[in-house]
Design a protein that fits this description.
seven-stranded antiparallel sheet; alpha+beta; about 375 residues; five-stranded antiparallel sheet; homotetramer; about 30% strand
Chain lengths: ~375, ~375, ~375, ~375
C-alpha cells in the first residue's frame, strides 16, 4: 500500500506547523502508509476564512452557444445511450468537468424537427427554461407540456420524461440540473424508459396545468405536500404579469420590490410554498431601465440567463456587458451587481435550498 | 482561451454517440474553445444507474493509528495556524485528500498533558467520540465539557471551541466533521478565537448538561427549536443503559430492536427530535454475541468505529475482522453486514441528514 | 357557598354508579359545597362513544333569508357599535345563540348603496363568499377588494377591514367566522378603527391579487410563510375553470376527481399550501347532473351554501331539496350525501383545521 | 318552529343599534321564525375588546378535597360505567359543569387497595400528576407505569389504559384532561376495554421509560415523530434535578431562569421537542424563598397545583395564600403573580398548544 498510496505529504510551513526534521519525515511516511493526512498541512485549503470557490465567474455568449448547438444538431444524433443533445457549460475553474458551478449543471439542449429525445428518469432534479422558440413538448409521466418563450418547466427527480419536436423547426432551450451535486454526493440513480415518448400530442396546456394552474386552488384529490412542485409549467404570461404589477405597485407607492426598480418572483411549489425543487431555487428578475442593484453575495452559486434587454453585470472583480441569451455564473460568496441598460429581464437558478435546509445559508453585501 | 482551455473532449463510442469525423472534431474543438462539454460523452460517468462512489470500503486499525498519533504528540506542536493535532483518514479512492468519504471527515486527535488546542469557530459541524481515555475538556462557548470513554460530544457549526488537557496523561479521541461536504459546496467560514481556552475548569458536567440533560424536560428559557442540539455531551452511562434495556426488552418479547440481537439508538436534538447536527447523523449500535445483521445499503456514506468487542464486518465485497478502536468506511449504496463475535458495540456517523432533507434518501438490501 | 353553588348533583343510576343513600347524599352535598362534580354522574354526557353534537342538521332558505336582510336594510343602520348589518344562522340545537355550529358563525350581510361598514379588527378569522350581486369593496388594511358573484374573500384575524358600497344597488353576501370557537376558548380581541373606510376606490383587482394572484409565483419580498393567506380574493373565473378542467380530465380518463362526477378544490394559502385560515377550511364542490356522492362523515362541522343548480342533500336522517343560495349545516360526525339534479355547485366551510392541527381529525363513512 | 324557536331577540341599545319600533319588532320576530340572530344585538358579548372569560379565578384546598375523595372511596365503587372515582373541579363561572376552565378538566382520583379502574380509551388527551403517595400503576396499552410523588404521567388520546392498586393503602392523584374542549368541539370518541387491567405487574420503571428515558437518545425503531410523547413517565428526580441546577446555574451567573429566583421546565415530547400532548401544555415551576414573579397574562387558561412550600398567589384581583396540594385556576387573559414564602414548587397545565397551533396565542403583562 505504501507505494501505491494516494497520500503524499510534505511538511507545512509557518506558525502552528512543525519544522521539517528526519523524524517528522518518518512520521509523514507513516501517515502515508496508513492512508492518513494531518489537518495541520491542509487546514488553509480546507477551512478558509470564507468560501473560496474553485469555480470562477464566467460568461457564455448566446451568440456563440446557439451556433454550436445548431452544428451539433447536424452531426450528433439524439438517441438511447447519449440520451440528449445537451451541451453543458464547463466552469473554467472546475477542471474541465461539465459543471457550471460545483453543484449545478447548465446546458443548451437542441432538438431537430421530428426528433424524440428518449424517455428516462433519474434522481437529479431538473428544469427547462426557454429563452426563445417553441415547438417542443416535454412529456413528463405521459403528460405533454408545451415549451414556449419565457416558460419555466420544473421537473423533479425520478419522473419519467422525454421530449418531442413535432414542428418543422428545430428548438433550443436551457436545461438546469443538480448533476454535480448529486455526483459529488453519490446520490445518483438512472433508469431507461422507452426510446420514443409515450405520446406525440401537442396540447396547449398540460394536464398538470389544467389541474394545478390556479392561484391558491388545490384539487381535493391532491392534499399531501409533495417534495417538488406538481405544476409542470410556469407560463411566461403569468411571470411577466407578476413583474409588471410589482413595478406598477412600486410606482403607486407600495414597498413590494426588492429595491427600487427591481422586481422579482420566485417559482414555488404550490403544495408547500417552498422552492419548486428540493435542491434548486429558480427566480425571475426584472430591472427597470437604468436600475443598478446593490452588491449582494451569498453562500451557494447561481447561474443567470439574460431573457431580454441589455445591461452590465459585475461578479466579484469581473464586469461584462450582457444581452439576450447570455449565461453567467456567480460562484459562492462572490458579490453580484446587475445594471440595466434599456431594461433587463433575467432568469436565475441557484443551489440555495441545499444550504437553507442544512442551516448553511448566509448572506452579505 | 483555446490553448489554455481546461476542457478536452474526445469522441464517445457506442450506441447513442456520434461517429468520429473531421466535422465532429471541429465541433468538439469549438466546444472546447467555448468551455462547453456535451452530455453524450459524459453521461455514463455522471449519471450511473446507481451511486458509483469513488470512495472505497476501507478499514483503519486503531493499533496502527494510535501509535502514529502518539508520535505526532512528540513531534508536532498544537497551536494557532495548525489549530489541532488531528490526523485524518484519507479514503484511498479520493485522490489523497483527507476525506474518509466524499462528505465526511474522520480524524484521530491527540492532546498532551498541559496542552491547549486554541479556540476557533467554523461553519463545519463537528463532534467528538471517545473510544478510550479521559482528561480533556472541550470548551464550547466557554462551557467546559468533560470527555470520557463512550461519550459523544456534538458541536454545531459556528460555535467557539477549544480543548484543554489538565491531566498528566495524553488523550486521543475521534473527530468527525462535514469538511469534505462544505468544502465541495463552498460553504466554509472560519474564524480564530483566543490562543488559550477561556477556562481551564474541569467540572464533571458541563452547564449544557446541567440545563438539558433530563429526558423530555426543557428549560422555559429555551423553547425555540435550534438547528443543532444544545446538549453538548451524551454520556456513555445513558447510551449503555439504553442499549442494555433494548436487549432486555427484546428478551421479554417486545419488538424494540432493529432486528433480533441488534439494539441501536440515534443521538438526537432535544429541541426537535431530529439529528443532533444538520448534516451529520450519529448512532450507536450493539450486537449480542453471535448476531449477524441483514445486509443493508443506503444512499450516503458512513464511518463506523468499533467501541468494544470483536466481530466481522462486510462492506460490499470486502470483509474484515474488527476489534476495539478500528474505523471503517461504508461508501454510498455499498451493502453492509455486521457480525458480532463476543458481542459488538459500534459508533456510527453518516451524512444521511443531507439526503433526507433534500429528498434524496433511499434504502435497499 | 353551598346555597349559591352552581353545582347541583343527583345520584346517577345503572352499572358503575353508587346506590343512593343518605351518606351518598351527604357526600354529594359536600361536593357541591366545594364546587366539585364527580365523573361518574357525568361521563355518559361528557364522553360519548362518538361525537353527539348538540347542533342539529338544519337548512336555511335563501328565499327567506334575503328578504329579511332587505328589511333590515331599511330598518337597521350600519355604524359604529353594531358594526355590521349581519344576520347570523342560529342552529336550533345551540340554545338560541347565533352559532351555525359549535365553532362556526355564518351570516348574511347586507349593505345599502353609499353605505360604509366601519373599520375594525378582531382576532376572529373571517371570510366572505358572494352568491349573487356585486358592487361592494372590502377594504383590508387599506387595500380595496372587489366582491363579485362566486368570489371567495378570506380575511385572517387581526387585520383592519371595512366595506363600502359605491353603487346604486344594495348587495348581500355571506360572512363566515370562527366566532363561536374563539368565544368558547376565550381568545377574542377586538379593536375599533375609523368609522369610514380608508379609501372608496373601486379597482377591479386588489393590490393583494396583483401581488399574489399567479399560480406558484411568489414575490421575493414575501418569502416567509404566513399563518393565513396573503391573497385576499379567489376569483370565480379561476374556481370555475379549475372545476371544469377536473371534470374534463375525468372524462379523458384521469383520476383527478373525488369520486365520479364530483370535482372539488380547496382554497389554500400560497405561502404554505395549507388552509387559507388557521381555523377555517374552505372548499368548492361541483357535481355533474345526476351524481350522488358516497355518504361521508368527519369530526368537525360544516356549513354549505348552494351556489348554483338544484339537488338533494341528506345530513344524518334529514333530507332536503336545495337550490341557489340555500345554506345548510352538517354537525360533527353526521353523515352527508349530496345528490345533483341539474348539476350542483356548492361552497363549503368547516372547522377542520382545528382538528387536524390538534390531532383530533377522523373520517368515516 | 316559531313558537318553539330557541331564538329570542330584544332590541339592543346604544350607538350603532336601531331604535325599537313596531317594524323592528316585526323584523325580529321574522328573524326568530327563521332561526336568525343579528350581530348588532350580540356583538358586545361575542366580540369583547379582550377575552372576558366566564370562568373565574378559584382556589380548591387540598385539605378539603382529599377528605371528600376518601369518603367517596368508602361509598362509591369503581367499575364499568362510572369508570373512575374521579371528582372534578367545577369552575363557579361555568354553570355547574365539571370544567375547571372552558377547555380543561382537573380532578382528584382515588383508588382503594386491591382496586382496578377498568380499561378504556378515549380521544381526550390526559395526564396524571402525583402530589403525594404511591402504589398505583397506570397500565397504558399493557405497559404498567408506577406513580410516585412528583411524577408526571402523560397519556395521549386513544390509548387503552386502566389503573391498579396492589398496595394496602389508598392513593389519590390529579387527572388533567381536555374534556371540556373536546366536548365543546364535538370531537369525542370513547371505547370500553376489559374490566380488569391487562397486568398487575408492579415494575419500578415502565417499558416506555426503559425505551425512551435517556436525554437525546432515540431508539432506531421509533424514528417517526408522534403527535404525543411516547415517554409515559417524567420522574420527580429528573424534574427536581433540572430545577435545582437551573437555580444553581443562575447563582453562578448564567441567565437560565425565567426571572431571578424562578426556575421552570416544560415537559416535552422527545420525538418533536414540542408539548407532551397536542392540546395540553405542562410545566413545573420553582420559586426560591422570597421570590415574587412579574405579573403575566396570556390567552388560554391554566390550572396550577402547589407541589410544595407555601406562598401567595394573585390571579386578577384575587389573592390567596397557598400550600401543598392546593389547586387554582387562571382564566384566559387574567394576570398571574406568584410569591414564594418558604419556597414554592408548582405544577401547571394549560391549553396553550391549542392557541399556538391555531395562531391565537398572545401574551401580556
Amino acid at each position: 500500500m505504501t507505494i501505491d498510496s494516494p497520500v503524499r505529504l510534505s511538511a507545512g510551513e509557518g506558525p502552528g506547523h512543525p519544522e521539517r526534521t528526519p523524524r517528522l519525515d518518518t512520521l509523514y511516511r507513516g501517515f502515508e502508509a496508513e492512508l492518513l493526512v494531518p489537518l495541520w498541512t491542509e487546514i488553509g485549503e480546507l477551512m478558509p476564512a470564507q468560501p473560496a470557490s474553485k469555480a470562477v465567474p464566467h460568461l457564455w455568449r448566446w451568440r456563440n452557444l446557439l451556433p454550436l448547438a445548431e452544428q451539433a444538431g447536424g452531426l450528433v444524433p439524439v438517441g438511447r445511450g447519449g440520451e440528449r443533445r445537451a451541451i453543458a457549460l464547463a466552469n473554467p475553474g472546475l477542471g474541465g468537468r461539465p459543471f457550471a458551478t460545483p453543484t449545478l449543471w447548465a446546458a443548451i439542449q437542441y432538438l431537430n424537427p421530428a426528433e424524440d429525445a428518449p424517455v428516462h428518469r433519474h434522481t437529479q432534479n431538473a428544469f427547462r427554461f426557454v429563452v426563445e422558440g417553441e415547438g417542443v413538448w416535454t412529456v413528463v409521466d405521459g403528460d405533454p407540456v408545451a415549451m414556449r418563450r419565457g416558460d419555466f418547466l420544473p421537473q423533479a427527480g425520478w419522473h419519467w420524461h422525454g421530449h418531442h419536436n413535432r414542428t418543422d423547426r428545430p428548438m433550443a432551450w436551457i436545461d438546469g440540473l443538480d448533476i454535480p451535486f448529486q455526483y459529488a454526493a453519490d446520490a445518483t440513480f438512472f433508469e431507461f424508459g422507452p426510446d420514443e415518448v409515450e405520446t406525440h400530442e401537442t396540447p396547449e396546456y398540460s394536464r398538470s396545468e389544467r389541474l394545478w394552474g390556479y392561484p391558491g386552488l388545490r384539487p381535493l384529490t391532491h392534499l399531501r405536500p409533495t417534495p417538488a412542485t406538481p405544476l409542470l409549467a410556469y407560463r411566461w404570461e403569468q411571470t411577466d404579469r407578476a413583474l409588471t404589477e410589482q413595478l406598477a405597485l412600486e410606482a403607486e407607492g407600495h414597498a413590494v420590490t426588492v429595491e427600487p426598480g427591481h422586481a422579482a418572483v420566485r417559482y414555488t411549489n404550490p403544495t408547500t410554498g417552498e422552492d419548486v425543487l428540493p435542491t434548486i431555487r429558480t427566480e425571475f428578475h426584472r430591472l427597470r431601465p437604468g436600475t443598478e442593484t446593490a452588491a449582494r453575495r451569498e453562500v451557494g452559486s447561481s447561474v443567470f440567463q439574460v431573457f431580454d434587454g441589455v445591461g452590465e453585470v459585475t461578479v466579484g472583480q469581473t464586469r461584462w456587458p450582457v444581452e439576450r441569451g447570455d449565461l453567467f455564473v456567480v460562484p459562492s460568496w462572490q458579490s453580484l451587481t446587475l445594471a440595466a441598460g434599456t431594461g433587463l429581464d433575467l432568469f436565475r437558478f441557484t443551489d440555495a435550498p441545499i444550504f437553507e435546509r442544512l442551516n448553511l445559508a448566509r448572506k452579505g453585501s
